[in-house]
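Query structure, 423 tokens:
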């Protein structure tokens, strides 16, 4: 690891051209790689970490982006996936199988909630949801002997609650399981969960890492800190019959988790990112530090504006003194809390719809974390499949609007909100 600061890493990590080589990361639009001898290829099937064989498993453009994201998070390795959903799926399947159990915060992204609550259950993996703000004793009650993961989001989508990562890490480690943190909203510029004890970080790169709403993608990052040899993870320690009987922990040491994710699950499931999307995501990442600063600054001002408006019931944004997560933001997010705000409008669901339809600058899109200001109604859009009870568990009210504040001029953003609230 070098000592560059995060802003410099956004630009320079991952790809370092040699003399006379392209200055900008090339797009290696190739499915396969040429070798001089069949022995070399045979060797790579034994040790696929020593070179590229096939782009389902690895590709030089993707490799550079993986190294950059791992460096930004302070991890030892990363693996890209086709979407945030597929990253979470591979991250979980890498250490869980039928009969296992996961404990998860209930305030998580709607897609992850459905993956856990419906699809994983169909596959025989049970999930218990907990209130992330409950006491350690209360959360502890959800653990079982077959629990393999504790899961949460650093800034939850869409409730904008902040996860007490140190508390969650203590609970996870006391139970001999890793803490997985979805760090999509915070990004490594604002918060690096490994510094507070998380073991695995997941991102939907679709959001701020790309930042321009052009590529769907995901990534899993390994801190290299978790001890997989504690007896709870035989799939990492015992011989893998699908890989010549190797033990991942014996062969790859503290990179066992991320190597297995790639060489077993990416090999078998094939939910890889295309090199073109890796190139575009890398381009977006080069300005992440500037964008997060402006997103956070603009959102703080919009939150303060909404907070004093008489048509607004409540605003969730952690820099507001009245916010439930004000104290936690000082500890975990001193540089800013990202661009996403949620708030409740007087007049229920209909008033929320009217407000959104009257916005002129902000657009109605099923997306967040874009350079352009966007707005969404979680109850009728992203979280539509959930029952009212599940909505409340995820922290969503029917009159709640989620605003993703962009990097436009702040006065234009506030003027747009003002006229839409008046209309
Ligand atoms: C969008 C999102 C996901 C899912 O990512 P996709 O790239 O859309 O599959 C997961 N977690 C969070 C917090 C998200 O906002």
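Result returned for the query:
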């Amino acid at each position: 690891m070098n000592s560059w600061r995060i802003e410099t890493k956004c630009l320079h990590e991952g790809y370092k051209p040699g003399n006379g080589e392209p200055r900008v990361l090339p797009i290696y639009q190739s499915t396969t790689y040429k070798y001089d001898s069949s022995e070399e290829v045979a060797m790579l099937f034994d040790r696929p970490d020593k070179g590229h064989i096939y782009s389902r498993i690895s590709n030089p453009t993707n490799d550079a982006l993986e190294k950059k994201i791992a460096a930004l998070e302070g991890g030892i390795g990363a693996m890209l996936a086709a979407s945030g959903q597929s990253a979470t799926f591979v991250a979980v399947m890498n250490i869980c199988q039928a009969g296992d159990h996961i404990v998860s915060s209930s305030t998580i992204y709607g897609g992850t909630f459905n993956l856990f609550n419906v699809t994983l259950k169909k596959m025989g993996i049970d999930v218990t949801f907990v209130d992330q703000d409950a006491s350690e004793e209360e959360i502890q009650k959800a653990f079982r002997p077959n629990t393999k993961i504790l899961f949460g989001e650093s800034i939850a989508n869409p409730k904008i609650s902040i996860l007490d990562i140190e508390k969650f890490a203590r609970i996870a480690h006391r139970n001999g399981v890793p803490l997985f943190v979805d760090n999509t909203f915070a990004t490594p510029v604002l918060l690096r969960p490994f510094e507070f004890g998380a073991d695995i970080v997941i991102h939907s790169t679709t959001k701020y890492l790309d930042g321009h709403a052009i590529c769907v993608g995901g990534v899993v990052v390994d801190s290299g800190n978790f001890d997989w040899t504690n007896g709870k993870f035989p799939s990492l320690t015992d011989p893998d019959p699908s890989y010549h009987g190797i033990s991942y922990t014996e062969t790859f040491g503290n990179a066992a988790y991320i190597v297995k994710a790639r060489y077993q699950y990416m090999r078998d499931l094939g939910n890889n990112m295309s090199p073109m999307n890796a190139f575009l995501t890398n381009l977006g990442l080069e300005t992440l530090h500037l964008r997060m600063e402006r997103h956070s600054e603009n959102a703080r001002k919009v939150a303060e504006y909404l907070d004093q408006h008489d048509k607004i019931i409540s605003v969730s944004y952690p820099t507001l003194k009245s916010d439930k997560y004000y104290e936690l933001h000082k500890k975990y997010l001193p540089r800013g809390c990202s661009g996403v705000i949620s708030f409740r409008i007087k007049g229920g669901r209909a008033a929320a719809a009217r407000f959104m339809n009257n916005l002129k600058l902000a657009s109605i899109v099923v997306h967040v974390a874009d350079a352009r200001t966007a707005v969404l109604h979680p109850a009728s859009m992203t979280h539509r499949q959930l029952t009212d009870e599940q909505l409340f568990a995820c922290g969503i009210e029917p009159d709640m609007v989620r605003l993703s504040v962009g990097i436009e001029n702040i006065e234009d953003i506030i003027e747009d909100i003002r006229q839409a609230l008046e209309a």
